[in-house]
Amino acid sequence: MATKTKSKSKTKRKAPQKNLVIVESPAKAKTIEKYLGRSYKVIASKGHVRDLPKSKMGVDIENDYDPHYISIRGKGDTIKELKSAAKKAKKVYLAADPDREGESIAWHLSHVLDLDPDDKNRVVFNEITKDAVKESFKNPRGIDMNLVDAQQARRILDRLVGYSISPLLWQKVKKGLSAGRVQSIALWLIIQREREIENFEPQEYWTIDSKFKKGRSQFAASFYGVKGKKKELPNNKAVEKILGQIDKDAPFEITKVTRKERKRQPQAPFTTSTLQQEANRKLNFRTRRTMMAAQQLYEGINIGKEGSQGLITYMRTDSTRISVIAKHEASTFIHEKYGEEYAATKPIKGKMPEGAQDAHEAIRPTSVFRTPQSLKEYLNNDQFKLYQLIWSRFMASQMTPAVMDTMAVTIEQNDVIFKANGSKMKFDGFLKVYGDGKEKDNILPDLDEGDEVKLANTNPDQHFTQPPARYSEATLIKTLEENGVGRPSTYSPTLETIQKRYYVKLVGRRFEPTELGEIVNDIIVKYFPDVVNVDFTANLEGDLDKVEDGIEDWVKVVDSFYKPFSEEVDSATEKMEKIQIKDEPAGFDCDICGAPMVIKWGVMVSSMLVHASPIVVTPSQL
Asked: Where are the active-site residues found (predicted)?
């Protein structure tokens, strides 16, 4: 008898819904998805999805500066993908960077995807590590509108300045020019420094460096003064007078010997600006190069068996604060690797810049046990050099001071005083991981008060005072920060803009203003003095910080700036005269005919070289 077989059901099971997480970059998405597991899908918005329109002001001045946001051109496919994924998702989480910019991106995404900004779907983490990411999803929050308003106020202020002054520059100077709040200050600082250099009058001064000997030992000393007082040597006549007082054949007496133990403290871990400065000084990295490598280290690098890992904490910060967990891990590593005597009981805290937000930790490695050498095979050259710098600086900040034995000696004869200073490393401390090559021993012979030494030779030398140095990227960023102008995220784009507009050029790693830059600066100084007023701009930054803290209303901040500024715009429109820019010599001749070449500036302020001798330049060539 035939047996009947039961037919199996062919009904397909519906795939379970996943939680959707939206971040800014694909690299960040890849790292985070690995940590969260199968129940999460992570995709990237690739930055902002909405912004003010490029073709017009986009700010309703008459209606409380209401911004008119539109979808960014070219983001249509990305927005479509985000909407489709959001509709299928069990829940949508917004995981943009943990700062004003990131909060603004999350807010714009909530509008595009029709999410409730008050819903607890915002997650933030200071480092992209498994523990930090998972912990953030345990404590989601609503979008912080104070952060959004602070970013929105900055964006609107910059738009009001740029879209008010730029058309004037187009009309009166050249099409394609622009002006902005922070970039105008940066340009003004560079030009002020250039004028200091131009107006500098060198002053003559002399030094007398000498060699003394005790037995077979020789050591260097320099002229200090006469009769116990320091004395300047303004000219050769003064030098001859001093040398005339000295009996070269008679002994000099050691009248004072001071021995001290001097401690050299480590520096605090990096903030954004100090990282940019040190990378420029030590690695010869431009600011953009530094931030690009830092972004990659933060978002995640594939490091073999561990997969993609975020290697440093968030790289846009003005804080030197370090978490308790990170301090403990560093202390454990230092004890194991270097010994107890190298581990600081109270690590250096560092001085916070005025106006610092302290929203994030300092820039540090996410794990000190991932040493630079252990990661070298996985990192490209820039990533390795920057990671090594960050790792070493952080480790040094958690270590003990270096200790130097110092010796200061005063040498006299006939009321003429020379001084010598010596030092010897007693304990290297933090310098074991973060030296700068300046720690060389300068050992003096064993000297005591009352000893006699002989003069071996004298070397009088003429000098002239030098003008202040032109700004490098590092020193300009430091000056902007010290004056409270701009914030960590603004320095790199500011320096890029003033170079892209050809307001300044880098010559030997130093900024020199161009004629175009001087013209634009003079216009802004004359007609818009508040825009280049350092104190005014710093106070405005402080007001934006108050908006972030919920103390100040963003509309009030914008209005207090714009009302007097708009009057300046009206006055400038009426009074400003058209300016003719001369062609700038390129500094070399044509390869073909030998005629001098000049730089022509076209409609989009992109440069081209043409002959200085009369020729016809068509619009297409410009």
From this structure: 314
